[in-house]
Amino acid sequence: MRYIRFAFLGALAVVLIAVAMANRSMVELQLLPDELASLLSFQQTLSLPLFLVFFGGIVFGLLIGFVWEWLREHKHRAAAAERKTEVRKLERELKKTQAERDKDKDEVLAILDQSA
User: Fold this and answer.
1) Where does the sequence pass through the membrane (predicted)?
2) In the prediction, which pLDDT does 116 show?
3) Cα–Cα distance between 97 and 89 in angstroms, integer?
4) Residues whose CB falls within 8 Å of the CB of residue 25, separated by 6 or more in sequence, listed in order
């Protein structure tokens, strides 16, 4: 299975390098459209190779997806934390109840009851 993963990653690397080599031409990215930039008198441009725009878009999309999913699963994480807190509370209560039950017993019998 490990060799299949390495083969897949190698093939993916070859494809990504081929895409990068085929799209090395420089492109100019503008922050705002020309009309809006002239209205606001703020013109920001950036020249990058086209493959960086492709790969940057992919990475940006993945980051947005990860953040979106993390926010969406907040209720599940909160519920799990609440259950964990409840379990700890019940375990403490159980130990307290067992200690009260075993306070009049012989120490050896109390230890045997706890281990069972």
Assistant:
1) 46-68
2) 61
3) 12
4) 49, 50
